[in-house]
Amino acid sequence: MKHRAGTVIRLAVPLRALTQRFAFLFLILSAFGLMLLGKAENVMMERLRAGVLDVVAPILDIASHPVATVTHAIEDVRQLIDLRGENQRLRAQNTRLLKWQDAARNLAAENVAFKKLLQFAPPPRAQFATARVIAASGGVFVRSVLLNAGKRHGLAKGQAVITGDGLAGRIVSIGDGSARVLLISDLNSRIPVLFEGSRRRAILAGDNSDTPRLVFLKHRGRITPGERILTSGHGGVFPPGIPVGVVSSAPDGVNRVLPFVRADLLEYVRVVDYRPVSSEPDIEAVSSVSAGTATPAAADQDKKAPAQ
Amino acid sequence: MITVLQRLDRVARSLWPFVLSLLLVVASVLPIQLSDFGRVAPNLAIMATFYWAIYRPDLFPVLAAFVLGLWLDLLTGAPVGINALVLLLVHWAITSQRRFFQGKSFGVVWWAFALTISGAMALFWVLSAAYHLTLIDPSPVVFQLLLTIAVFPFLTWLLARTQHVVMRQG
Q1: Is the Cβ pair B40, A135 closer than 8 Å?
Q2: A92 pLDDT tier (thresholds 50, 70, 90)
Q3: Residue from B57, B59, B88 nearest B72 by CA
Q4: What is the C-alpha separation between A53 and A174, in angstroms, rounded?
Q5: Residue B34: how many CA atoms within 13 Å on its side-chain side?
Q6: Are the CB atoms for A259 and A179 separated by under 8 Å?
Q7: What is the pTM of this model?
Q8: ipTM score of the complex?
Q9: Could you please report the per-residue DSSP string of A189-254?
Q10: Given B38, B88, B134, which is nearest A28 (Cβ)?
Q11: Rounded to a whole number, what is the distance in Å from the CA of B70 to chain A's nearest CA?
Q12: Does B26 touch chain A if contact means CB atoms closer than 8 Å?
């Protein structure tokens, strides 16, 4: 018995070292294996992601509240300091916007009349769900946020995520009570867009910088910095006419877009449920979604309107 | 009965390094809506792995580093496995050099941390670029690297405090 115990100990030490080394190698290979599975967009990996996020979402939901409270307090102090300046800016903006309001009312009335004349078939209606951002990716090469709503709340993969300012991103992975939003600046983000004035089409491709690139531009020609970019609605997942950003000046010859939405300041977002095939179109829903869309002629009038 | 409770207590204390690291990763993904804060948060996962691999590798085995990496990947939406691989290698590098750290001053440990995380982030950048098959602008990585090195003393102090309080009897 004593002899046997001695043998066990003599064998156990190198065995342990061997298993440890084996475990390390096994884990390294597992990490590579998981990366390959993820790259191949394996269904199991998708489920794993969604499952884990569903479990963590309630925790993040609770934990993000105090963080939001603190950041709000800091923002409040900052705003108090700049109150006078802000007030002045808002007054100036208000005067400008009132002119726009007049212009918009006139155009809306005109638009309704024209649509009646043309027997225009309006695009399908869109519905919205509101969700709160409960986690931002602290990672350096991923631009995504996590929402506290999922399938249970009517969200689905591919839907557009917007704020009052414009397009923020789209849903890429979804669980029952959580969803991951890929922001437009992420490396993997590709969004069909068009120029508001010239109606030229392009793809907005994220490259991990704050200003995504415009690629696959149809009809090469001059691009004026400052022109607005909207979603084109091609592909049928996104409603057309969501404001995305403005063309920024291109020092390196690459056409870039400065997005309207500050992705690092997202708190509440709206998710657009847009169904391209719909039996009962609704004019009111259309006017709320495609407020930014306009025909070339109308766009020209838009530009002139405030000067009148 | 008391022995069972004591045993439970001991298990809870020995799980502490791992659980605390998981919680640190959760804290690092919470959204902070401050306009000049930026998106890049310090890499708390590498810091925690580095710390526990030096001071309590018995309570933070290589499997813990792997799971922590997966946890980070799943929470941040990074390719699953990428941070797991980086943390595994950090853990391996530190535990294999453990003798070097014994009795060294904090300055030396900090310097070693700067070296380790530089290597780890460089690897992370290469892996990310290979995964996405594009050249990625490395500036966010450099920024995160500097931020993490700067935050290291504070986190070390925090971890040392909790180690002192929670594992005094462990």
Answers
A1: no
A2: very high
A3: B88
A4: 9
A5: 17
A6: no
A7: 0.78
A8: 0.85
A9: -EEEEEETTT--EEEEE--SSSSPEEES-SS-----TT-EEEE--TTSSSPTT-EEEEEEP-TTS-
A10: B88
A11: 9
A12: yes
